[in-house]
Amino acid sequence: MPHTSHLEISKSAYRRNIKFLQNQLGAETIISSVVKGNAYGHGIENIIPIAESAGIRHFSTFSTDEAMRVHNTIEKNSTIMIMGMIENRDLEWAIEKDIEFFVFEFDRLLATIKAAKKLRKKAKVHIEVETGFHRTGFEWKEKEILAEMLFEQQEHLELSGLCTHYAGAESIANYVRVQNQIKKYHEFKKWFFNKGIKFKTHHTACSAASLSYPETIMDMVRIGIVQYGFWPSQETYMSKFKQLAVNRKNPLKRLITWKSKIMSLKKVEMGDFIGYGNTYMAPRNMLVAMIPIGYGHGFSRMLSNLGKVLIHGKIVSVVGTVTMNSITVDVTDLRDVKKGNEVVIIGKQKNNEITVASFSESSQQVNYELLTRLPQDIPRKIVY
Fold first, then answer.
1. pLDDT tens string 151-188
2. Distance in angstroms (rounded) separating the CA atoms of residues 7 and 256
């Protein structure tokens, strides 16, 4: 059965974004495509084939369930890495399937060694160290015990990486903190090297760090939102502005377009209230259109009387309260508007565009939040 809206995912836009990233990062740096949050709302099963066709061979997830979806989708023998949640009982599955995963605490390390011994197969682990994010990672004071365990259990562990994560590389306000983290990571790296413990890869950079702190580009980078065509922040974009100003074009292209249709039309007389409550009184005789998407589909209730959509290439306003399943928009000034006309919620229509950034700013959401809140049951289709 048809859904009330659908998302279009552009394959050519993805290829363009990856090409830009490869030029920025260098040919030797591995790009790990971060597909957590249902590939930032784009759909894991949609993005994996597109990414593999663009040459990506490494994918990062947050959790085991996401890793399973990636494992069931890949076709190019790509590597999968779990950065966050994996239950100890699922470690055997990960080891059996050659899934790599972060180890940032002794409980997981001990459980990993136990599972690897049982399977008689090395676990591919990435040791995460605490450099100042204060979320996950082995502390500096734990390094001696950690090193001893890694050395003693080397027949059961493949040290696939030494990693950390930066606390807000997308904002200049965090510059000092990030610089301190970079310094601390290199202290860990040097210390392990001097102990004779070697890692296959070293990686610390997310999208923002890769673009704003080139010194964080190592053997591999974990690229999330940029591959989908979005700058991590306005500050990240501005840090590249001089370089980008040569062509005066944004090198990133949004993959996602969100479309729906007009469900019905209604005439409203001046002075009447539209929708729930009394948040919007018609200032004139109006024609309004009902669009069958609401906060249940990811269109924030905070966009009541604020949101915009495109119809006939014109920007029209949401009037009244956003409900669970619908919004009402003012189409009084449009010509020949009809039931079934296309509505663009995010994307281009003729000469106008509603970007995710503008959509986010109106609802006080960040790009990441808006994208990952798009329900998985909204149909997604690949377009060129």
1. 999 999 999 999 999 998 988 889 999 999 999 999 99
2. 6
Q: Do 201 and 220 contact (CB within 8 A), yes or no?
A: yes
Instruction: Give dist(CA 326, CA 302) in Å, integer.
Output: 14
> Are the C-beta atoms of 223 and 30 separated by less than 8 Å?
no
Q: pLDDT confidence of 376, banded at 50, 70, 90?
A: very high
Q: What is the pLDDT of residues 192-213, one digit of tens each?
A: 999 999 999 999 999 999 999 9
Q: How far apart are CA 94 and CA 107, in angstroms?
A: 16
Cβ neighbours of residue 143 under 8 Å, at least 6 residues apart?
Answer: 188, 191, 192
Question: Given the structure tokens 């690229």, which residue do they identify?
Answer: 223
Comparing CA positions, the residue from 61, 56, 47 lying closest to residue 22 is 56
Q: Measured between alpha carbons, how far is 142 from 128 in angstroms, rounded to an integer?
A: 12
Instruction: Report whether 149 contacts 127 (CB < 8 A).
Output: no
**Could you tell me how far CA 201 lies from the centroid of its own chain?**
23
